[in-house]
Structure formats: structure tokens, C-alpha cells
Design goal:
Helix content: 25-40%
Radius of gyration: 16 Å
Distance between the termini: 43 Å
Largest sheet: 5 strands, antiparallel
Strand order of the largest sheet: 1-2-3-4-5
Shape: globular
Number of strands: 5
Length: about 120
């Protein structure tokens, strides 16, 4: 049974890595000669990674929140919650620094504010 959870966690990790690759591939602008970096529309310009521990019975900050925003503070937020018996990954859309019709946790709001302030 432990092997199953190990493989499931490994699969979640590679799935998340592939998702981040696809998102960065979609929003990255490789032709910087035509426009200055501050004028890129849709390009990821603000990021923040927050590691935290949402569960009392698990040691270490193994859960994380990754925020990827454009110049209008819109983009996505990826939350990974790691527990001894499960790992869950959530993707939430962000519009103008707020959750797009979705409730955000205090950690997610904090990560968004830190990304915006950079």
C-alpha cells in the first residue's frame, strides 16, 4: 500500500511539473525585440512560491502555493496539499488579484499579495 501512495505522489509531482511547463510555454514571449518587457500582454511577470504546513500531524512545510500572474495581476494559482496519506493539487484562476468566483484561503491570499508586491 505504501508503494501505491509513493507512486501516486510521484505521478502528481510529474503531472504538476508538466502543467507548469505547459502554462509557461503558453504565456512566455520569446520575441522580446518587438516590445519592452514591461509591455508584454499575457506574459508571466509576477511569481511567488509559498511553502507551508496546513496539517498539525505532518512535520515540515511540504505543501506549497505557486502564483503566476501577468501585469494585470491575472493568472493562475496552484495549491498542493501534502499529507501522510494523500496529496491534492488545486488550480484556481485569478483575475485582478482576486479569486475568479472561488474562495481563497488566507495562505493563498497572502501568496497573491506577495506576488503582486514584487
Amino acid at each position: 500500500m505504501n508503494t501505491f501512495f509513493y507512486l501516486l505522489t510521484l505521478l502528481n509531482f510529474f503531472g504538476l511539473a508538466y502543467l507548469i511547463f505547459l502554462i509557461s510555454k503558453k504565456y512566455r514571449n520569446f520575441d522580446n525585440k518587438k516590445s519592452p518587457a514591461s509591455d508584454l500582454t499575457g506574459a508571466i511577470q509576477k511569481t511567488h512560491l509559498l511553502r507551508f504546513n496546513p496539517f498539525d500531524d505532518v512535520g515540515g512545510d511540504q505543501s506549497f502555493i505557486l502564483v503566476l500572474l501577468d501585469k494585470d495581476n491575472s493568472g493562475i494559482l496552484l495549491t498542493s496539499l501534502h499529507h501522510r496519506s494523500f496529496t491534492r493539487i488545486y488550480a484556481k484562476s485569478i483575475k485582478k488579484g482576486q479569486g475568479d468566483n472561488i474562495t481563497l484561503s488566507k495562505e493563498e491570499k497572502s501568496a497573491i499579495l506577495k506576488a503582486i508586491s514584487r
